Amino acid sequence: MQKSVIYFKRTLPEKVIQLLVSISNDAFNNREGKIVGNRESTYCLSYGGDESMYGCLQLGMLELEDNKDFLRCVCDWKWIDEEYPEENYSVWRIMEKSLKE
Question: What pTM was computed for the model?
Answer without folding.
Answer: 0.89
